[in-house]
Amino acid sequence: NKNNRRSQTIMRAAIRTGLLGYTFSFNPSHPSPKTPLQPNEILLQVKSSAINPVDYKLPKQLAGPIPGIDVSGIVQQVGSDVTSLQVGDAVFGRAITAKGNLSGSLAQEAIASEAEVAKKADYLTFEEGAALGTAYLTSLQSLRDAGKVEKGSVVLVIGASGGCGLAGMQLALALGASRVVGICSGKNFEFVKSQTGASSSSTAVELVDYTDEGAMKKICEENVGKFDCIYDTATGSGRGEDYASNSSIANLLKQPTGQFVQINGGPSTWAKKVLGFEDKNRSLVVTAKEGKRDLETIANLLEKEGFKPFLNVKKFDENSIIEGFQQLKERRTKGKIVFTIEE
Q1: Nearest Cα residue to 174 out of 227, 119, 121, 136
Q2: CA-to-CA distance for 265 and 51, rounded, in angstroms?
Q3: What is the structure's pLDDT at 277?
Q4: Most C-beta atoms within 10 A of its C-beta, which of 110, 242, 259, 272?
Q5: Contact (Cβ atoms closer than 8 angstroms) between residue 156 and residue 235
Q6: Is the torsion defined by CA of 284, 287, 293, 298 positive or negative?
Q7: In this structure, are residues 114 and 42 in contact, taking their beta carbons and an 8 Å threshold?
Q8: pTM of the predicted structure, to 2 decimals
């Protein structure tokens, strides 16, 4: 029987503490995930786990006791209907169960739906695989699906040095954009260039410093109607930036086909999304379910271009968990914060 209970009943895990669970600590003896598995689920021995702002924004009541969505690991058990994976496979993706609940990836074991993980290519380490889930899925779906980015597109990425922004820069190049412009602070220019420069495409990345008023004015004046897609990863992300209601940014869109895509927003943006009142040129992207095929696409695009996610790797202990979430909240980190769960 593929659903045998394991002998292991406790595991090391990060946990949400406090009434709502917005603070984090470490439990060396947390209960292991409950099996038997649903027919289309797998049990993972977690190798690595990455964190995202959503992990501290969701309350414990919604997200469960263990934080973390992004994951990589080794398949330990498979449900009775799982066909694409077997015990021993190395996989990466998101620890989302068949019912759509978050299993929690900052732990030694996690459950995932077969549709939420893909086999890990040798090109990626376990840490790199864990870094792709949320940021790269969000960026691929924002650019390709909402933003209609394809070969020859002209793309502007706002917040180019953050987790989703850097993923967006790399994927825009990999999707064949003919021009990619990134907005970030000048002190991050070299970093962004180093992460997007290995591309086999001849498209050179242009960067604009948002703290330089002259440079911002120049890009806005010289590029009216030029961009097929504006990918805004900064608005609504917690520092008060609002590019979405800035008319000189909106004027950069090619008319009438250009798309403004944002991944965070204020209450009114969310209300429009929920009620179905979004403008045809504006969309707020919420990452789609069942990421397997898109995860495979992302791994292939990165390998084709020679790109990798940029990592800030941490140990799996209480101090590192607290430090990692603190850095994420203060946005003092370059690249993705990833925890090595099992060496």
Answers
A1: 136
A2: 20
A3: 63
A4: 110
A5: no
A6: positive
A7: yes
A8: 0.91
